[in-house]
Amino acid sequence: MTQEARSAAPSRKKTPPPAVKKPDSHSTTGAAPSFQHYQAAVQLLQQGKYERALAAFEKLLPTAPAEIRERCKMYISTCQRQLEKPNLTFATPEEHYDYAVSQLNTGYYEEARDQFNNILSGHPNADYAFYGLAVLDAITGQSQDCLANLARSIELNPRNRLQARVDNDFQTMVDDPRFTELLYPEIP
User: Fold this and answer.
1) 0.85 cut: is pTM over it?
2) Is 74 exposed, middle or buried, given 0-12, 13-18 or 19+ CB atoms closer than 10 A?
3) Other C-beta atoms lying within 10 Å of the C-beta of residue 13
4) Taking CA 83 as the corner, what is the angle to CA 81 and CA 86, rounded to the nearest 5 degrees?
5) Burial level of 12, CB count in 10 A (0-12/13-18/19+)?
6) Domain-embedded: residue 21
């Protein structure tokens, strides 16, 4: 290239490419996709799709922002526990009831509710399952459901009225006049 050609050519400056800012652990701007993946995984978990949720959380964990990393670990553990659950079979509805009560006594209220409802789906007149639901409802503060389930239990087996009178699990219901009327009806 000649000297004239060099001077006629526009001068080009080489500018460095713009610096790419890495998101810090306190910034959610760069973490938005991670939070979207996290929300999708939580939704899978809530829908009971444990295998898919587990895969989603495991994929997210290595790149998860600090704000959600521990939650991802907890949900991974939850998914694994759900997937390891054996399929339960019971010889009798009473045996099934005993299992439901054990879940209730250990504080697994949703599992207990599912078990009581499973008993009722196969045995709609199982007074003890309605009684168990009434106890569960009393413990969890669902007074209207408690009254309905206890009334059905007493209707199917009047001896449940006597049992409920001395059952400490109904302690939260003793001040409710509807509960008192149910346990001590007026005799005409």
Assistant:
1) no
2) exposed
3) 4
4) 90
5) exposed
6) no
Q: Tens digits of per-residue pLDDT, 24-39? A: 444 444 567 888 999 9
Q: Are residues 177 and 116 in the same domain?
A: yes
CATH of the domain at 158: 1.25.40.10
Question: Total structural domains in the chain?
Answer: 2
What is the domain range of residue 153? 93-183
Residue 72 falls inside a structural domain: yes
Q: Are residues 146 and 178 in the same domain?
A: yes
Alpha helices in the chain (DSSP H): 3-8, 32-46, 50-60, 66-84, 93-105, 109-122, 127-139, 143-156, 159-166, 177-183
Tens of pLDDT, residue by residue over 105-126, are 999 999 999 999 999 999 999 9
